[in-house]
Amino acid sequence: MSHKSAIQNPVEFFVAHGFLHDSEIIDICCRILNGIVEVSVDDLNAAFLDLPNDPGRWPGKLIFEGAKTLNSNLYFVDGVVISKSLCFVNNGYFLMEFELRYGGFFGEGRHRASIDFTFDKLFVTATL
Fold this sequence. Notes:
By secondary structure, this protein is mostly beta strands. It has one domain. Helix content is about 5%, strand content about 45%. The protein contains 1 helix and 9 strands; from the N terminus they run βαββββββββ. The strands form 2 sheets. The protein has a 5-stranded antiparallel sheet with strand order 1-9-4-3-2, with no helix packed on it. Strands 5-8-7-6 form a 4-stranded antiparallel sheet. The longest helix is centred in the N-terminal third of the chain and has 7 residues. The protein starts with a strand and ends with a strand. The mean pLDDT is about 90.
């Protein structure tokens, strides 16, 4: 089992990881009774692919605890890629917004979707 690491500053985490630009979503799991949203992606460092400062591929799972609300217009299809992930502090909790596109890596001009939710704590684990 992978080690679950607490992210002390979620806002800075998403900035440091290029807003997860071009990370493909593999899985989303909502544990409603526990207030948990889990988002698994193919590469948390996808924004840096082929750049000189590319830290290497990092498949991972983001675990958002203390989720209270969730809104989405997501279609369940292959090739859902994050265009941008934004995290804000709002009234003592965090607001997470994922701007998504369909069509994989080259789907920039295709249909768009979004997911947003509130949360209290963020954890990350490496996946294979």
